[in-house]
TrEMBL record:
Residues 2-70 form the RNase H type-1 domain. Pfam families: RVT_3. This is RNase H type-1 domain-containing protein. It comes from Morella rubra. GO terms for molecular function: nucleic acid binding; RNA-DNA hybrid ribonuclease activity. InterPro entries: RNaseH-like_sf (IPR012337), RNaseH_domain (IPR002156), RNaseH_sf (IPR036397).
Length: 103
């Protein structure tokens, strides 16, 4: 989607440190069953110099998980306007960060 939209700066966040390390280790072959996808990600990062992939702890990635669950529950696929997404999903990472600060 970012490539189709000609986005020059994209940050891809993943909560699997193993996967992120595999994508970033371009001189080592992927050891996963998803080697084809790893190669695709490597090629996209090479083609689009302004793109990067970063590891983020799962606790900082709640929005992505909740959005995926919401879409799956409703049978939503493809592009979803942000105005359709419930506010509690959009702001969940902020709420999670605040909760951790209070501990």
């Amino acid at each position: 989607m970012a490539a189709d939209s000609n986005c020059s700066h994209v940050i891809i966040e993943g909560d699997s440190q193993i996967l992120v390390n595999q994508v970033l280790s371009v001189n080592r072959p992927s050891m996963w069953l998803i080697a084809g996808e790893v190669d695709t990600m490597r090629n996209l990062l090479r083609e689009y110099g302004g793109w990067q992939i970063l590891w983020t702890p799962r606790a900082g990635n709640s929005m992505a998980h909740r959005l995926a669950q919401w879409g799956l529950h409703l049978g939503r696929v493809g592009v979803v306007p942000i105005t359709d997404v419930p506010t509690e999903i959009i702001s969940c990472d902020d709420s999670d960060m605040q909760s951790r600060r209070e501990l």
